[in-house]
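Model it.
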Amino acid sequence: MTVVEALKVKGSPSGIRAGTKVRGIRLVEGVDGHDIDCGIDGFGATRLKSGVVKRV
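Modeled.
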């Protein structure tokens, strides 16, 4: 899966760019709509909303 749009991340100077690959995807009980638990290379573990990723 990849990130569809650039995301600002609180506490990170760079954020996450559009087109970044998402790995280790787990669907979890959503907290404020963040229902995907995943890892991003060069960034680390994070939670994303399902609307900001797409299947490749």
